[in-house]
């Protein structure tokens, strides 16, 4: 149903311009990735970037599916009438000036919805940044950054974002960090017609999408949203803003959203197997982690392997704070790890690998010890803490990634980069490219493991995952 | 008292070597910054890096204050006897193999303490990374990284770290991030003699130290530690590891530390005005923030200025989670902000500045609005959220820093870097160099503001701060 937005047959850009502002970026982004017909509309130009420009919708010689709306709000009703004559099926309204600015804007928005509904035209937005698709590379958004072209990689993460700047600014920040492939991104703004629930359903059915992450200020049809979430095996991570009374008030003025009670959401999310998060980078961190974690059988505890006894203790405390269990490593596992340890030291858990690494090298000690804990049936997940340093080499991170895939046990990686500015970025890239999610904070590693275990336990209990571990 | 460790008159390095391992780095670091006499000791060399090498302690022609010990543990008792003949006042034992490896090591350590005490020689460590001083540039540590020379800036933050790898690896990671000047760093390991309480007292009296941060697995003399903390106006931030039963067990095997009950620590820390933190980057983030925040009069609420309505709502929710108050901006303040807003939009709180910034430019809108909230007596702290982008320029961050200093109200900065890989680093550097602490997570901005308000409120209640705001 939402295919007409993501894969339209012909796109017109109302408000395209050659001046370096929103209407230009919207048009340029559109022609960059979309290979069908594109019609810029602006009476002031004959062409923009070499593409024939039309003075109005009526002048476009063919019918087309999608209109991108980027002119002042007040023209929307008449535009919908014009669109109807051209067989338009959907309009993405990226302009602001609707329900978020008060009663008058609200009336304008409501009127537009009525008119569109009569014609069977779907509306997206208003007050939003549009959409993009990492696989088709369709980008129908006015975000001005140009480097999405190099940075955007196709992948499994699809996003629903009910906030303009967050969707664009944040998306660019996420792309620049790297490590996460994208399927579909939707900035839904005031969501006068297309909303989070319809998108959730669409993403659940989308074969490119493996993980769904959403920033939401309100959920219109909570019952349906939760039902869809409950019935899919895909992980869904939600940052629900407006949890506090004052936050809800701010959400009201931001996208005219009525937030529900925080406690009700919390319980309902858990029931539906939704992973709830509370901060902005956290949303992306957890989504990125899930995108690299297709399997988990939560039937044991978490192993901690570290370069620092201190970091291991902090991690153990945080496991406890998050109601997770430190795995009970078997004597066999400890004996196997002992093989790479110095004579004077016996491994305990959390496993401080540094004295061993000094003797036998980081690569050998880490990969040997990680394989030992992966084989231990009491371990269902692993937190690996290491130094990113040119001295130790970085290739062993690939071996760790391989072990993670072989044993199908989630890994969260925490690193301190030392020995030069670029080394942490380089190590992170090697890790992420090979399927190891890396997190800046130890607490994020722990909350990721908690989210993964909760998701797979819930989906297994609901009979949505039949996966069995093959050791 | 601890001056003999930080400012010794003559230093010998037992276990110095020309091979690229610990004993070499320890020696090289020592001669790099320390301008007094240095005596490498190793029977295998006549000189190391051009400095005359001695076969043993007895051969050193003069008396000296400090010995850096970096040979196997078992030689420590005889070494102390040798040291006594040379007038040595302190020994920093950086080797491992003492109480942390079991009963035998514990006996060796205890015996060494007894012998040293008889001679009046102070012991530091063992099982530690030694110390450094950002002002004198004395670095008596075997950390192998060479780039501390460029990265280490003098400043107000002093650290106590009860963990070897954390102190070295972590310190390097902190130095590479930048933004924090250092006074004294102490890695105390098994703390057989010099301990966290004595160091705390020393730092409290140290005129270069304005902020004290500690990673501790145990506190030997809790009563005295808390008394010192309570009676200083300097902020003290503590990451107490081993809070959980399993974490405490791990701490026992790591530095042979007996941890106390988590709940007792929590209450006692609060009573003493200690800011408690729970993660490793958090310890440094909060210390860095305090080092740029000499003043705060917690008599109002927190203002939020943002480029994204969504981020503002998330921040408001997190304020609520952390028991902070969103400031009630006065009509006068809102009217003043309105001056830079577009006609169709009235500012509300949190203040979403983006529509205004699009109209009047980021620099003007941010600085004007921040000054307006700073002048509002209901505001005692400000969270500023902005884009780090070459398009908006970055110099306005300096103006924001100036406003912060002028009005003496703490600021926490959160940025999304877009428009190229280096821009976030560049913006961060400008902000930090001018006294604006920047944090990667919104939740960290909020926990920083909470820590600052709690610290200043407590110290004012205890009569340790007489500061009044001069508007």
Structure notes:
The structure is a homodimer of 471-residue chains. The first copy, chain A, folds into three domains: 126 residues, NAD(P)-binding Rossmann-like Domain (Rossmann fold, 3-Layer(aba) Sandwich); 164 residues, Rossmann fold, CATH 3.40.50; 167 residues, Succinyl-CoA synthetase domains (Rossmann fold, 3-Layer(aba) Sandwich), CATH 3.40.50. In chain A, α11 crosses α18. Chain A contains 18 helices and 18 strands. Chain A is of the alpha/beta class. Chain A has a seven-stranded mixed sheet, with helices on both faces. The first copy, chain A, is elongated. Helices cover 42% and strands 17% of the residues of chain A. Chains A and B meet through α6, α9, α11 and α12 of A and α6, α9, α11 and α12 of B.
Which topology of the largest domain in chain A does CATH recognise?
Rossmann fold
Oligomer: homodimer
The tally of structural domains of chain A comes to: 3
Strand content of chain A: 15-25%
Helix content of chain A: 40-55%
The number of helices of chain A is 18
How many β strands of chain A by DSSP? Answer: 18
Low-confidence stretches of chain A: none
CATH architecture of the largest domain in chain A: 3-Layer(aba) Sandwich
Q: Which strand order spans the largest sheet of chain A, edge to edge or round the barrel?
A: 9-8-11-10-12-13-14
Largest interface, C-beta within 8 A: A-B, 73 and 73 residues
Question: Termini separation of chain A (Å)?
Answer: 42 Å
Give the full name of the CATH homologous superfamily of the largest domain in chain A: Succinyl-CoA synthetase domains
Rounded Rg of chain A: 25 Å
CATH class of the largest domain in chain A: Alpha Beta
Molecular shape of chain A = elongated
């Amino acid at each position: 149903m939402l295919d007409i937005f993501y894969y339209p047959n012909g796109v017109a850009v109302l408000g395209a311009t050659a001046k370096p502002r929103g209407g230009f970026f919207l048009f340029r982004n559109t022609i960059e990735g979309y290979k069908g017909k594109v019609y810029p509309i602006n009476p002031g130009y004959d062409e923009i970037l070499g593409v024939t420009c039309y003075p109005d919708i009526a002048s476009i010689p063919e019918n087309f599916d999608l209109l991108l709306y980027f002119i002042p709000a007040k023209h929307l009703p008449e535009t919908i009438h014009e669109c109807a004559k051209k067989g338009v099926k959907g309009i993405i309204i990226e302009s602001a000036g609707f329900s978020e600015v008060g009663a008058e804007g609200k009336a304008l928005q409501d009127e537009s919805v009525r008119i569109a509904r009569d014609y069977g035209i779907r509306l997206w937005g208003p007050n939003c940044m549009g959409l993009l698709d990492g696989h088709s590379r369709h980008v129908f958004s006015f975000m001005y950054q140009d480097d999405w072209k190099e940075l955007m990689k196709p992948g499994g993460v699809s996003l629903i974002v009910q906030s303009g700047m967050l969707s664009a600014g944040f998306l660019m920040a996420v792309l620049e960090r790297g490590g996460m492939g994208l399927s579909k991104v939707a900035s839904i703004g005031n969501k006068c017609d297309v909303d989070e629930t319809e998108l959730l359903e669409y993403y659940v059915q989308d074969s490119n999408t493996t993980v769904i992450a959403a920033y939401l200020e309100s959920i219109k049809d909570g019952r349906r949203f939760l039902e869809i979430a409950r019935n899919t095996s895909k992980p869904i991570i939600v940052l629900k803003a407006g949890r506090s009374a004052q936050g809800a008030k701010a959400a009201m003025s931001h996208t005219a959203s009525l937030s529900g009670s925080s406690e009700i959401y919390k319980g309902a999310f858990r029931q539906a197997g939704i992973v709830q998060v509370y901060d902005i980078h956290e949303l992306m961190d957890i989504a990125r982690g899930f995108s690299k974690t297709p399997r988990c059988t939560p039937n044991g505890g978490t192993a901690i392997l570290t370069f620092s006894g201190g970091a291991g203790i902090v991690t153990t405390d945080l496991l406890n704070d998050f109601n997770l269990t430190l795995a009970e490593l078997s004597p066999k596992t400890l004996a196997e790890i002992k093989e790479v340890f110095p004579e004077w030291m016996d491994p305990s858990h959390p496993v401080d690998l540094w004295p061993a690494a000094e003797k036998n090298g980081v690569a050998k000690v880490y990969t040997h010890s990680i394989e030992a804990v992966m084989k231990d049936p009491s371990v269902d997940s692993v937190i690996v803490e290491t130094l990113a340093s040119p001295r130790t080499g970085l290739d062993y991170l690939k071996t760790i990634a391989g072990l993670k895939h072989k044993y199908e046990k989630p890994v969260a990686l925490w690193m301190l980069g030392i020995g030069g500015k670029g080394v942490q970025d380089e190590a992170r890239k090697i890790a992420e490219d090979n399927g190891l999610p890396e997190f800046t904070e130890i607490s994020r590693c722990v909350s990721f493991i908690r989210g993964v275990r909760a998701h797979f336990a819930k989906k297994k209990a609901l009979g949505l995952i039949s996966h069995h571990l093959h050791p």
